[in-house]
Amino acid sequence: MGTLDRRSFLRASAMAGGAALAFESLVARADLFAVGAASRAPTATLAGDYGPLVPKQTNNTGETLLWLPEGFQYTVIGKAGAPMADGRLTPGAHDGMAAFDLNGMTYLVRNHELGGGPAYGGLPYDPTAAGGTTTLIVDPVTRLLAYDFASLSGTVRNCAGGLTPWGSWISSEETTQNANASFSKNHGYNFEVSVTALGEEVPVALKAMGRFSHEAVAVDPATGIVYQTEDAGPAGFFRFIPNQPGNLAAGGRLQMLRVNGVANYDTRTGQTRGQQLLASWVPISEPDPDLQGGATSVGAQGRALGAALFVRLEGCWYSDGRIFFTSTNGGNIGRGQVWEFAPVSNTEGYLKLIFESPSADVLDSPDNICVSPRGGLVLCEDGSGEEFVHGLTQDGQIFQFAKNVVPGQEGSEFAGATFSPNGATLFVNLQGPGHTYAIWPRPGYSWADGAL
Asked: Could you give the CA distance from residue 452 to residue 71 in angstroms, rounded to a whole number?
């Protein structure tokens, strides 16, 4: 049986066997159909699915780079190595990303997960480091690039991050690299990138948010609290309470999640979908430890106080009062988990497993995630072999939405999934070749035909 057929069979078997635990509505059920033009009747075989994937050529270059459902089309923009409007070449290793509406255009701020330098920008944090962000201004009708430029440089392994409700992007370093013969500064920090600045600004390391192997962040707009994931093993789930909501540079308090009543509760295996675990937070006394001098790491500080154990926490997204995040290697077979944290007070909340991969053929190592304006989750896969973008429905059913078929790069991971604020376009990156895709429905079709 071929891989695609086997994946479809195992996914359907998982549904029949009860693997699809219904998780509470991410948004009101009616909102699922509230966005998009009038559409044909859905033809999907699974609730939320958009139908089988077929080879698709890009609208602008004619290349066959993705398989998508029949009702969708796409463009490829922002390719690695292409000249940008500021005269620099587009960096590679595209990763986390977010979309913003500004001046009638769609602005994308995109991470580049690069290590050793030299820096590609003119105002680098560390001139010996090659990571950072670029900003793309995209026509919302044609989904073609209008302008692009370097917006942050001189950082290391900018993997993910997250958007803020005040209109900026937090870019996160997935490292704890010390200053040495190769790097002029310590690394392992978050950096805030302005969306409105049409160029670079002087980078500021947000040291109070913690020095650790960062992955993604998600901001609760009601409180300004920033939730953070750590890509390590064991890893922790953190929150940062700013002294001034909306002003992260003003400092604040860093804390790490602890499951009540169980010191160092181990989430990595043996978990029950839907079980609610009451959790609270332990303080991190030194968020910027001198690791080179032997100081205790942020994660070890939290674990000494009973913080919970995760593995490779990656994607993180806020929606409807809850934080959704992924554990790439979590679960009994180590192929991925999707978690939800729902605050119930200033000090406590409920942690809940909402999906665990039963097989690599169903879901293989979820990484970046986002929640669509209609309430479905988008999961970017970072496994081995064939790589997919998956949808996860409000009923807990999982389905394939896009497949990477870039010649010679078929095993490269998807990253940076994000919807335009009006919900019309899904943007996503492919890291290996350094591509950004804009995906949207063809005439006569709609996002409301399925769960995304």
From this structure: 13
| Cα torsion angle, 361, 110, 51, 352, sign | positive
Residue pair 158/121 in contact by the 8 Å Cβ criterion = no
**CA–CA gap between residue 150 and residue 70 (Å, rounded):** 35
- Measured CA to CA in angstroms, residue 219 lies from 20, 230, 248 at distances of 28, 16, 11
Spatial separation of the C-alpha atoms in residues 171 and 292, rounded to whole Å? 23
Amino acid letter, 421: P
164 close to 172: Cβ distance less than 8 angstroms: no
Contact 428/437 with Cβ under 8 angstroms? yes
H or E segment at 315? strand 313-319
Are the C-beta atoms of 320 and 254 separated by less than 8 Å? no
Residue 269 · residue 318 · CB < 8 Å: no
Distance CA 340, CA 290 (A): 32
426-430 and 252-259 strand pairing: unpaired
Secondary structure of residue 389 in the 3-state scheme:
strand
Write out pLDDT tens, residues 27-42. 332 232 222 222 223 3
E strand residue ranges, 164-305: 168-173, 190-194, 214-219, 226-230, 237-242, 252-259, 276-283
Would you say 328 and 382 are in contact if contact means Cβ atoms under 8 Å apart?
A: yes
DSSP single-letter state for residue 303: H
Contact 238, 257 (CB under 8 A): yes
Query: Would you kindly state where each structural domain of the chain is located, as residue ranges?
Result: 3-449
**3-state DSSP helix/strand/coil percent for the chain, to nearest 5?**
10, 40, 50
72-99 pLDDT tens trace: 999 999 999 999 999 999 999 999 999 9
pTM over 0.70: yes
- Tens digits of residue pLDDT in 333-360: 999 999 999 999 999 999 999 999 999 9
Written out in words, the top-level CATH class of the domain with range 3-449 is mainly beta
